[in-house]
Amino acid sequence: MDNFVYENPTRIHFGSGQIAALAEAIPTGARVLMLYGGGSIKSNGVYDQVAAALAGFDWEAFGGIEPNPRYDTLMRAVERVRAGGFDYLLAVGGGSVIDGSKFVAAAACYAGDDPWAILAEQAPVREALPLGCVLTLPATGSETNINAVVTRAERKLAFYSPLVRPRFAILDPATTLSLAPRQIANGVVDAFVHVIEQYLTYPADARVQDRFAEGLLLTLIETGPKALDDPNDLTLRADIMWAASLALNGLIGCGVPQDWATHRIGHELTAHFGIDHGRSLTIVLPALMQARRAAKRDKLLQYAERVFGIDQGEPEARIDQAIAQTRAFFQRMGVETSLADAGLDATAIDTLVAGLEDNHLLPLGERGDIGSAEVRAILEGALR
């Protein structure tokens, strides 16, 4: 295990009725801009709960942040922040709303000419507005981490800064009961792949992190399909919400190698072809596991045994079974596992490889040895 420094100061308010905690979580006297997405929080009662909790504050709302938040929309929110003198942001929604709010928090304080540089050039974030969040769609872990992803035209890029980590996060599983099956599935598989990206690399003598990761994978495999079958089970929603948060709050990634090639390739699928983020990952991951099976051999065998109970037979056969079981889990969640499932064919591969090259995102992988040719091979393996 490598040396590491771990800190996660986000305060979590977990459980039913926790939205009321907003009244104490936000500093007295703050001028608050609430940011949200397409309006589902108005139909499921979350907006009213938030409004009631903010009754003692000077606040306004900004809606319309898209899935895969778009730069132009976020810059309109930045203009609203600056014109209105808001000094605190409250994101109410899923990972896209929280990611978008993180960018708004940084861009509103950016001293350069174009805040896009925060993403395109990794310009340092030297100041950001404080923000908190109310999570309504567990998936990305954005509620407690320093990451954010923003889309502009056909570029989907990330930035990282501890200054945009939420000061607090409200996690009330009841807010997820109105999610559609597609949203439930997307969230579960997104969290699953977050764990995989930090776990399925090569052995690093990090037994604690491995066991944490395996526990999260087992929890998601168990609860994800059940939540689709019984969408009103609040205990299942609680387990999924907490697992998704722990999947990317930094803990299981301490001191271990990390991959993120599946996410990078998946971002190109979303940016160019509009495929849901979670589903872009389930298209890429099985093919990546197959193409990288030699480099990931030891951890694939560990994954096979500890997650799926596959401990008999020749090693290569066990790896085959683990990949097949992963694909079967995704299919049980009702998500695509190939480019063909998403209506794409081999003609898409050039576009995806070029996108990674143009954005200077190569090489990828835990060893930095996935270049254009390797990405092409992975995508060819993902065709069907």
Automatic annotation (TrEMBL):
InterPro entries reported in the protein's UniProt record: ADH_Fe/GldA, ADH_Fe_C, BDH-like
Domain of life: Bacteria
Every Fe-containing alcohol dehydrogenase-like C-terminal domain range: 185-354
GO molecular function: alcohol dehydrogenase (NADP+) activity; butanol dehydrogenase (NAD+) activity; metal ion binding; methylglyoxal reductase (NADPH) (acetol producing) activity
Secretion signal span: none
Pfam families documented for this protein: ADH_Fe_C, Fe-ADH
Residue intervals of the Alcohol dehydrogenase iron-type/glycerol dehydrogenase GldA domain: 9-173
Coiled-coil spans in chain: none
Keyword Oxidoreductase: yes
Gene Ontology CC annotations of this record: cytosol
Protein name, UniProt field: Aldehyde oxidoreductase
Gene source species: Marichromatium purpuratum 984
Source organism phylogeny: Bacteria, Pseudomonadati, Pseudomonadota, Gammaproteobacteria, Chromatiales
